[in-house]
Amino acid sequence: MKFIILGCGSSMGVPRPDGYFGNCDPNNKKNYRTRCSALIKSKAENILIDTSPDLRQQLLRHNIKKIDKVFYSHMHADQTHGINDLRSFYINRRKQINVFADYATSKYLKNSFSYCFKSYSKEYPATLKLNKINNKMYISDKNKKISIKPISVDHGKVKSNCFIIDKKLAYISDISDISNKDFKYFKNLKYLIIDCLWYNFHPSHFNLEKSLFFIKKFNPSKAILTNLSPVLDYNELKKLLPKNVMPAYDGFTISL
């Protein structure tokens, strides 16, 4: 089974649409960042985490021919606005794709993209089926069922879900705080993929200091920083990190 970081950029990506690279060296390919999405790829299923506005580009780059399920972390545009790109996978199989979201995100998706969930005509049927995020979610991998545990965390004024896969990897793309009662789920994992927007304080995201604080507390074998803004040049950031921590880059793949 593989976990692929399809995109690791902040809400406008790197470079931004106006061509702004910030501190990032445009000669380093690892500084070209699409918006955050991830793919869990087993022998039986392809499962997306979030549908970023760059989803089409991400799926083409990795030659993804099917999507079986989608897990949404939260309602923000940089996590949801690629939703229409799922339609091609419905056309291929003529089967609604199951998407999983919390109450607030479900409400937002139904209001903003009602045509995905409701059949308006024979030519434009519903392509997605909305399900509530729950503790019984899993990935099929041949004859095995691999658990996916969602944990709700703070992300500024909204809630965001992070996902723990097989008690080995946690994916936390957008976070400003986490409840003490949930610390136990994040300790001593093999991989911790965690939000790190920039150097200074931000009300809705971890900055570098806070990311490193929680990495030290949770003690993963390997930590990967994601949701990186144009402030964070790949090589310059890497120089500041402990040996078990690295910046993400688009296409970074973990074998589980």
Question: Which characteristics define this entry?
Answer:
14 strands, seven-stranded mixed beta sheet, alpha/beta, single chain, 256 residues, 19% helix
Kindly describe this structure:
- The chain has 256 residues and is an alpha/beta fold.
- It is globular, with a radius of gyration of 18 Å.
- The relative contact order is 0.18.
- Helix content is 19%, strand content 28%.
- The model has no long low-confidence stretch (mean pLDDT 97).
- It contains 7 helices and 14 strands.
- The longest helix is centred in the last third of the chain and has 11 residues.
- The strands form 2 sheets. The chain has a 7-stranded mixed sheet with strand order 6-5-4-3-2-1-14.
- It starts with a strand and ends with a strand.
- Helix 1 links the parallel strand 3 and strand 4.
Strand proportion: 25-35%
Tell me how many strands there are.
14
Helix count, DSSP H or I runs of 4 or more residues: 7
The description of the largest β-sheet is: 7 strands, mixed
Query: How large is the radius of gyration?
Result: 18 Å
> How far apart, in Å, are the first and last alpha carbons?
5 Å
Task: Outline the low-pLDDT stretches.
Answer: none
Approximate helicity band: 10-25%
What form results from the Cα inertia axes? Answer: globular
- List the quaternary state of the chains: single chain
SS-based class: alpha/beta
Mean pLDDT across all amino acids: 97
Q: In which order are the strands of the major sheet placed?
A: 6-5-4-3-2-1-14
Instruction: Give the ordered list of helices and strands.
Output: EEEHEHHEHHEEEEEEHEHEE
